[in-house]
Amino acid sequence: MTEPSTRLRVWLGRTITYGSLGLACLVALLPLVVLMMASLKTSNEFATQGVLDPPGDWFNFSNFAAFFVEGNVVQGFLNTSFILVISVIGTVIIGSMTAFALDRFEFRLKRTVVLLFLFAALVPTVTAQVTTFQLVANMHLYNTRFAPILLFIGTDIVSIYIFMQFMRGIPRSLDEVALLDGASQFTIYRKIVLPLMKPAIATVVIIKGVAIYNEFYIPYLYMPSRDLGVVATTLSRFAGPQSTRWEVIAAGVVITMIPTLVAFLVLQRYIYNGFTRGAAK
User: Fold this and answer.
1) What distance in Å separates the CA atoms of residue 211 and residue 260, rounded to the nearest whole number?
2) Which of 12, 28, 111, 143 is 20 to 30 Å from 233 at the Cα level?
3) 222 — alpha (psi -120 to 50), left (phi > 0) or beta?
4) Is 163 exposed, middle or buried (0-12, 13-18, 19+ CB in 10 A)?
5) Phi-psi category of 170—alpha, beta or left, where left has phi over 0 and alpha has psi -120 to 50?
6) Residue 87 predicted with pLDDT over 90
């Protein structure tokens, strides 16, 4: 009686486990399938068919061509790449330097500074958009690529905390030995601390890069010019007050989704390892 009941429990456990995993995969993949089918439909098919109905022609790539030609996608990718590279580099430099200063130096109101960083991370960014917009306009950065770059670099508190978690795992004895050899604090940061923070840097680069690539609100608000459009704002050009070309937007979503999907599949182990090591330290 014991052995059959044990086998039954094992069978039920495996059935529930694989069943739940299959259901989760279905929930995750179904929107992607619907999106792909919508991108291959004509405007008439999209308006008259259901979301699960397949397209009449599985090789209809006219929506993709329309998105590329009418949406000025190449310029959007160039603008996105320019903003992404500079913003990520600036975030890594400023975030790692800030974490180095907060962890290695003792100064008055240090705890207050850390609490202010935490408070800034909790404040919704939308509530400060009026003041932020005025600052950007007064600095004559409105409708330039440097407006989102400045905002992306200056508002990333999460990256600072990721670097601070890794800094706590770097022994201070390395700093003391370097100081005895005559190294300056900047030399310690550049030649000792920064190379040891490669997992944290990889984590920040991936998370920040994906966030900037998918950001819509900031480029839409601060770069309204058509020539300064990014990948995310390109999609809005096919939505208007009279009509919206949903089939072209679906094709655009498929195109813009490919780089982030490839980047995640290739670099996912760095994301998981970075979060795990940061939490452990």
Assistant:
1) 10
2) 28
3) alpha
4) buried
5) beta
6) yes
Burial of 251 (0-12, 13-18, 19+ CB in 10 A): buried
Please name the amino acid found at residue 2: T
Q: Are 96 and 249 in contact (CB under 8 A)?
A: no
* Cα 136 to chain centroid, rounded: 23
Nearest to 230 by CA among 77, 86, 82: 77
**Which tops the pLDDT comparison, 156 or 247?**
247
pLDDT of residue 279: 42
**Residue 118 above 80 pLDDT?**
no
Give pLDDT, residue 3.
65
The helix or strand, by DSSP H or E, that contains position 2, with its residue range, turns out to be helix 2-39
The one-letter amino acid code at 21 reads L
**Separation in Å, CA 137 to CA 62, 82, 86, 144:** 40, 21, 21, 10
| Long-range contacts from 46-52, C-beta under 8 angstroms, 24+ separation | 46/246, 46/247
* More reliable by pLDDT, 221 or 107: 221
Count of residues making up the chain: 281
| pLDDT reported for residue 278 | 46
pLDDT digits (tens, 9 = 90+) for 246-260: 888 888 888 888 887
SS3 at position 280? helix
The most confident of the ranges 10-19, 121-130, 272-281 is 10-19
Rounded Cα gap, residues 228 and 142, in angstroms: 11
Q: How many Å apart are CA 179 and CA 67, to the nearest integer?
A: 58
User: CB count, 10 Å around CB of 34?
Assistant: 15
